[in-house]
Amino acid sequence: MFRPLVIVKTGSTLPQIKQKYGDFEQMIARGMEMPEDSIRVVCPPAGESLPSPGSFCGIVITGSHSMVSEREDWSERTAKWLSGVLEAGIPVLGICYGHQLLAHALGGESGYHPWGREVGTAEIFKTSQGEKDPLFENIPREFLAQTSHSQTVHTLPEDAVLLAWNHFEATHAYRIKDCIWGVQFHPEFNPDITRIYTLDQVEELRNENKDPAKVYNGVCTSDAEIHLLCNFARIVLEYDMKTII
Length: 245
Description:
9 helices; 11 strands; 9-stranded mixed β-sheet; about 35% helix; alpha/beta; globular
């Protein structure tokens, strides 16, 4: 890889997870099997400036404990920047908050899920378009993924293609054009991380009439955490080589 990948850090994970596994950007880099010197981390909530297209080969937008619907200044600035990146044809992957922010930036709508939160290892289904999508290569038609979110994409951007869904979450993954993806689930999480998030939300789950013990005991290794970030790394490398040569 000749140019760096930019990770747009929109928040931090829980302290106990960060101590053991690193923050979102370390989890993502590990999942993509990329060395640290090939990655540039930019943190808009800390006031850091976003780079101009052309200086990097791909973008990953992390999850966050913030909410897209709060329309914080840094988040709206990032959304405006993302709408400009679309025209550059650079590979982009939004994860959870990033997935929702991309949809908001490109004409969709994100907000709280009417059924509350989805936490734990979830069964997800690829659409016919998802079956053919390079981001989901080596991932079964019915696959498992780690989840922890209370907001959702209510309306996809006009030109988005739905790639994955389940009975709780109608928009678990989408693609825009041939280079922009959003995934509501967390391919950077492992089962231990998901269990920690489950324990952190026990009271909220009970308030939503969900069984925290059932969620916790159902957590297991997922197909997405094994393959998806490596697939995106391959997409980014192919793009970088094509545009450099």
